[in-house]
Amino acid sequence: MLIDTHAHLGWKRFDDDRDTVVSRALAEGVGRILTIGTDLESSRQALALADRFPAVHAAVGIHPTDVLDLPSADDGWLEELASLAAHPKAVAIGETGLDYFHPAPEGSGGELAYRSRQAEVYRLQLELAEALAMPVIVHQRACYDAVVEQTAPFHGRVRCVFHCWTHGWAEAAALVAAGHLISFTGIVTYPSAREVQVAAREAAPGAFMVETDSPFLAPVPYRGKRNEPAYVRQVAEKIAELRGTTCAAVTDETGETARKFFGI
């Protein structure tokens, strides 16, 4: 089965037709959808959606651009996240990680303080994932070296998927060698994304998964429109083309990888 390993079903852009979006994905052979939390509220919402739709599972976590909404001290947020992670349909911690693309918000104390807080919250979630024996979904935008450095102490202790892969195979190979995975979005269908396409061609079976990151990053031929889980098929089809194989083969490979990684 196809598995969309990263979607944001709770976003407002799905409010008018969420049931239809899920039904359309199922009709396209998408047997599982992992909807992602980016803060405590959206993590609770992700779990509610997982309860509502049998095919949906959830990840709970704090996105790096949301870290300033947390108290400066722990003050219970980590305990609440751990409680959410105990839900039967919670299968990963995330989306967490680092983001150096977006500038520090006004009043954050500047880039250094903002990045330091991101690193602290990322580390705490990696520690939580280790304690709970759960995988981690990592956001890494414009910060490859930093996220690798901060993940390195957890190699062999926590397995991560570096979602929305935008780098080449050399960068991916180092992470895969450390026991982690990468995941491809609709970016792999863009003609300009040559490094990403090389990574999709070179990655061994079991080293990668597919996702939509919907409602963002719709693949060709839907580029520029709202993305949705049904379109993970276009991601798999493009990867099959790049690898000289069939969509069914990519579907089987990535589906099996996702089932094992997330336990779904």
Describe what you observe in this structure.
There is one protein chain. This protein is an alpha/beta fold and 264 residues long. It has one domain: Metal-dependent hydrolases (TIM Barrel, Alpha-Beta Barrel), CATH 3.20.20. Helices cover 41% and strands 17% of the residues. The protein has helices at residues 18-27, 40-52, 77-85, 111-132, 144-151, 169-177, 194-202, 232-243, 247-262; strands at residues 2-7, 30-36, 56-60, 90-99, 136-141, 160-162, 181-184, 208-210. Strands 1-2-3-4-5-6-7-8 form an eight-stranded parallel β-sheet. The model has no long low-confidence stretch (mean pLDDT 96).
Q: In terms of topology, how is this protein built?
A:
Elements: E1 2-7, H1 18-27, E2 30-36, H2 40-52, E3 56-60, H3 77-85, E4 90-99, H4 111-132, E5 136-141, H5 144-151, E6 160-162, H6 169-177, E7 181-184, H7 194-202, E8 208-210, H8 232-243, H9 247-262
Task: Let me know the CATH homologous superfamily.
Answer: Metal-dependent hydrolases
Report the average pLDDT across residues: 96
Q: What CATH architecture label applies?
A: Alpha-Beta Barrel
- Overall geometry: globular
Question: What order do the strands of the largest sheet run in, or round the barrel if closed?
Answer: 1-2-3-4-5-6-7-8
Beta-sheet strand percentage? Answer: 15-25%
CATH top-level class: Alpha Beta
The computed structural class is alpha/beta
Low-confidence stretches: none
Q: What's the Cα radius of gyration? A: 17 Å
Distance between the termini: 12 Å
What is the CATH topology assignment? TIM Barrel
Largest sheet: number of strands, sense, barrel closure: 8 strands, parallel
What string, H for helix and E for strand, traces the elements in order? EHEHEHEHEHEHEHEHH
How many independent structural domains? 1
